[in-house]
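Attaching the record inline, Q. Sequence:
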Amino acid sequence: MSAEKRPFVVMAKPVGSRCNMRCAYCYYLDKGKYSSHQKQSRMSFALLERLVRQTIEASPGPVVSFVWHGGEPTLAGLEFYQKAMELQKKYLPKGWQAWNNLQTNGLLLNKKWCQFLKDNRFDVGVSIDGSEAVHDQHRHDLGGRPTYGRVREAVRLLQAAGIQPDLLCTVNASTVGDPEGVYEALQALDCGWVQFIPIVVRDGDGFSPESVTPEGYGDFLCRIFDLWVHKGLGRMDIQLFAEMARILAGGEASVCWMAPECGRALVVEEDGGVYACDHFVDDGHRLGNLSGAKLENLAELPEQSQFGRSKRESLTAQCRRCPWYKFCGGGCLKDRFGLSEDNEPGHYYLCGGLQKLFAHSVPVLERVMELSRQGIGPREIMEQI
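Structure, as predicted:
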């Protein structure tokens, strides 16, 4: 790795916040108001070329990551991604390769889309909130219709094309009421990898009805862990538990909200605007625009470096003395608005839920890892646990 180039991730949003769904808890739908365009459209091919070229130039290689996000990124159309593949081949140095990840709600996926994604070795994440009953409470299309059946079909189409998608499931006020149903529905999709994302949306002095409480978050994760450790070892991996195992093994968290510092995951909007983070797309965190600046330079701006360091530097005293700190890194900056047990402001809102999970699961996870090191397989481990 080049000493001059520090790796960073670019989350490209080719249609900005535009989406063909209206999820009740969406945090991104109104971000178009920060665009320099009166109405968000699709990233131009000229801007796409600049994005691809600069991402490759800024990368230490030999693998260059491209994350395609939204809104709903498939609204850019298949032609857009075909062009992106052409540009990657054009600018990648000999011996280098691109890794592409598409995060989608799945509604536009068909056989042609899935074959393209397979042919170009895309990793695909599909958003689905566990069971049909829970999913359809909050995830509707533009006509207000439920979407679970169509999303489930998209998962099947991807699998038929030879792609095992990752599943992204939110933890909201509905999912926490049915952890067993959510877990069983996700496992039945037989995808192998699941991310759980908490929904916390502030609404004036309170929270939106869909938001999860710290207590509900902790109870849900504890129950999911128990189901996984008794039913899912070797069959389904859960990102949070995999990260905990990585840390227990002496490694560092690869997920930004769990790491001690952040700031290396930038957002590029459809108008070329570059922002500090997916959760901080606003005027105060706009770093510049690709039309007049280089991506690599924007990533190294002092204000972006300070943004990343602030995750460590703004910890409350409770965080600094917490025995579980190494597992959560103080949580995501967007949710640092709670009060600590010392009444210090700026504490991670979901702290209590994570503390409950770590106390409940870490001893068991250590035992699982020890048995695995002894060469014992998942089925026997589940029997012993």
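The radius of gyration is 21 Å. The chain is about 40% helix and 15% strand.

More tomorrow.
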